[in-house]
Amino acid sequence: MRSKAVRWLLVATISIVNVISPHVAQAASYACSGVVTGVALSPSGVVTVYSADAGLNAAYICQIGSTYNGVGPDACKAILAVLVSAKATGIHAEWSFNDGLSCTTHPAWDVLTGWYYGPVLR
Fold it and tell me: What is the C-alpha separation between 87 and 80, in angstroms, rounded?
């Protein structure tokens, strides 16, 4: 009899916690891959990538000379070199994300959000 009461109390407690606790949406990780169709460098040093089939329509990546979008200046130079190589060779670049977006919903002309890895040339 005692185990029934304990089980009922446990189920009731879990039910109450589920009702009153806020539900936190967890963003799923995903990767987008595509041909780099363009790379731009603004006068202020901002690197912009164009890869429509990867969902990156004019995405601001980093800035040479300062930390921007979580990327330091040296890493930005290396990323720029990788992007120029991808553009010159036509090799796909893959980007990994962890946010609430998808490969088709990254906003154009904006800082690339949720990006945690890449570009990886495939």
Answer: 10
The two structure tokens encoding residue 3: 């185990």
Is residue 43 classed exposed, middle or buried when 0-12, 13-18 and 19+ CB atoms within 10 A define those classes?
Answer: exposed
Q: Is the pLDDT of residue 1 over 80?
A: no
What is the number of alpha carbons within 13 Å of residue 105 lying toward its C-beta?
A: 7
Percent of the chain with pLDDT strictly greater than 90:
72
∠ Cα 90 66 118 (to 5°): 35
**At which residue do the structure tokens 């603004």 appear?**
42
Per-residue model confidence as pLDDT tens digits over 29-39: 999 999 999 99
Q: Do the Cβ atoms of 54 and 34 come closer than 8 Å?
A: yes
Residue 28 CB neighbours (<10 A): 10
Q: Which ranges of 21-115 would DSSP assign to H, the alpha helix?
A: 73-89
What are residue 32's DSSP bridge partners?
95
The structure's pTM equals: 0.75
Scan for tokens 């995903």, then name that residue: 30
